[in-house]
Amino acid sequence: MNRRTTWVLVLLAVLLGGWLAMTERRDEVRVAGATGSVRFRRLDPREVISVEILRSNVAIRLERTNSGWFLRSPIHYPVQSTSVERLLEMLGNLVPRSHQSSAEVTAQRGALAAFGLERPDVLTIRTREGMNILRLGGRTPLGSQFYFQQVGQDGVFTADAGLLEALPASPEDWRDRRLFDADSLPFDRVEILGETEFEAAITTNGTWRLIRPLVARANDDQIRRLLTDAADSRVNAFVSDTLTVSAEEYGLTKPTAQMVLKRGTNELLRLQFGRASTNAPGEILVRRSDFGNIVRITNSILESLKRPLATYRDRRLMPAIAGLERLEVRAGSEPFTLEKQGTNWWVISPRRFLADGPWVRETFQRFMGLRIEDFLDDLGTDPGRYGLDQPAREYSFYLGKSNGSPAMLTRLSVGTPLGEGRRLSIRRSDEPGIYGIAAGDLQLLPVSAPQFRDWNFNPSNIVQIEIRQQGRVRMLRRNSLGRWDGVIAVQGLLPDPAIDEGLYRIGQAPIGRYPVPNDVALKQFAFDQLDHAVTLTQKEGGHFRSLHLRFGGRNAINQFVWAAFDADEPAILTQFSLSLYQEYIGPWFSAPPATSNETKP
User: How many domains is the chain partitioned into structurally?
Assistant: First the structure.
């Protein structure tokens, strides 16, 4: 074979392939029949723009929109898009099982009637390129398949009968059963009318805020839950699709409640909740303004719509805040300031010392956990009535510096006790309202700089331990070799490692930090009964400082401790773990019976 012949054959193969590609379209399949095979055009569901179903003189027409599928006939209404997509998926996968030619069909007794195609249901699918019409007949004798025709194609096909089951029997089958589709409505305001009335708007940071009857922080979770519950309320029945209905008949002359969704001041949707249904206990009638139809839903949403306004207000006194860098406290005889410098927190006045970073973060969490129990005065016109003209305490919070100075976020002012003292009045400087909080919450808030003292110290820097207990005194001193003098081994343990471990654990120990209690509180915590105190002297460079610990009673898991550094005033009440006291402080930091190492005071 020469080169010219080879190129001719290659060219013929290419032309033949092109002809086959043109005649055998990718969207077609071959279906075998008794007289040969025929082509069947398949459907691409992604290209479908409308579906029309004609069944028993009822025409159901649906169109694809940007937000999904929509029912256009016999009424205008949203549909369950998943039902339409399921049908289209089945049509896209439709491959006939067999085929009978027109001659074979005509030869049957009854012709088309034998296949249920004399008065068929008609399924019309429009795509961007054209139209595909299927005439749907009856089931085959065994029932697992059905007969159908494709307009423009010869004869009758058979396919799995599951397609028939995916078709709606009536428009009701595919109507959207949600009360409304929140995702398709670009609303940014919601108004509630009825027993409870308010209006809320979405802020620039995406959270809800009350704008009527007062401007205030809203409970974002509660409003979102209200909208979700309303949108997800299931329509149990479509009562009326008539645009002109008797408002009195459905209890809509004076609706029980209304929900209005807006875009700015433009109303997008109004839901009017009418009377209870007489035929379905526990259900109510609702009218949608956009389609004017009346539906029936369960009445559970009414409970949320009737909740008092306070339910939808933010009860967090201070929501979570990022970027706090300064706290000024005026709560006792000596105001103090806490400031973040670099990555560390410091008490910078009236004395400067390193603050305990984790405890600072815990303190801010406590502020952010304060809960508003009562909304006392939304206008705040008479602060003196609540003792806020001369606050007992003030906490000022600052963010990062602006123009070289810290930028104040807000100031909390604490007023007088209310009623029997179970509540305290409190106010934010950036809000007009006066609130009430639980009086017990005040105990969680700092009042003195020593509460922020960093307890972490290096055990090797402790040079002396003074122990006082029940009238006895023991002195432990670190000698020039770094070992402890005046220690007796307990149960054969080496004393130095045990003491150093105890010191390390003391430096890590405090749980909770409260102002020093009065004499009554001291007796309450059994400090006078235990009468056990330890003073740790620490050397840092050429300076000495002492940490005074006085141990009191215990609860189920912790030991109460009264503590103070030399320069700290007042002392603070804190807690050590009970196991720390029992395992280390008890054995190594106690004054045993009289020995040669013990001195009398």
Answer: 4
Neighbours of 254 (CB within 10 A): 10
| Whether the bond into 96 is cis, omega within 30 of 0 | no
Would you say residue 315 has pLDDT above 70?
yes
Under 8 Å CB-to-CB from 301, ≥6 apart: which residues?
Answer: 229, 230, 233, 273
**CA nearest neighbour of 119 among 134, 137, 132:** 137
pLDDT digits (tens, 9 = 90+) for 252-269: 889 999 999 999 999 999
Whether 483 and 358 map to the same domain: the answer is: no
Residues 465 and 540 in one domain: yes
pLDDT of residue 139: 92
Residue 460 located in a structural domain? yes
List the structure tokens of 170. 């009536």
Q: Is 331 found in the same domain as 256?
A: no
- Within this chain, do residues 445 and 459 fall inside the same structural domain, yes or no? no
586, containing H or E segment: helix 586-588
Surface-to-core class of residue 371, CB atoms within 10 Å of its CB (0-12 exposed, 13-18 middle, 19+ buried): exposed
Q: Please report, in angstroms and rounded to a whole number, the separation of the first and last CA atoms in the chain.
A: 125
491 backbone dihedrals φ, ψ, rounded to 5°: 55, 35
- The whole-number average pLDDT for the span 239-264 is 85
Identify the domain boundary among 140, 174, 208: 174
In a domain, residue 12? The reply is: no
Q: Which of 449, 476, 507 is the last residue of a domain?
A: 449
Would you give the DSSP letter of residue 483? P
- 203/333 same-domain check: no
Can you list the alpha helix ranges (DSSP code H) found in 428-517?
A: 495-507
Amino acid at 156: V
Residue 24 within a domain: no
186 closest CA partner among 289, 288, 269, 263: 263
pLDDT category of residue 541 using cuts at 50, 70 and 90: confident
The one-letter amino acid code at 101 reads S
Shared domain check, 471 and 443 = no
CA distance 189 to 262: 5
Residues 352 and 229 in one domain: no
> How far apart, in whole angstroms, are the C-alpha atoms of residue 347 and residue 360?
10
Burial of 365 per CB tally in 10 Å (0-12, 13-18, 19+): exposed
Query: Helix count (H) and strand count (E) of the chain?
Result: 13, 38
| Beta sheet of 58-65, edge-to-edge order | 36-41, 28-33, 98-100, 156-160, 145-150, 131-139, 121-127, 48-55, 58-65, 68-73, 77-78
Residue 482 to residues 461, 476, 493, 499, Cα–Cα distance (Å): 10, 12, 18, 12
Q: Dihedral sign, CA of 62, 64, 70, 75?
A: negative
Residue type, 387: G
Position 421, amino acid: G
Residue 6 lies in a domain: no
pLDDT for the residue 26? 53
Mean pLDDT of 80-103: 90
Compute the distance between CA of residue 20 and CA of residue 27 in angstroms, rounded to an integer. 13
Residues 456 and 440: their CA atoms lie apart, in Å, by 29
Domain range for 303 = 187-312
Q: Which two tokens stand for residue 95?
A: 């491959």
**Same-domain status, 459 and 443:** no
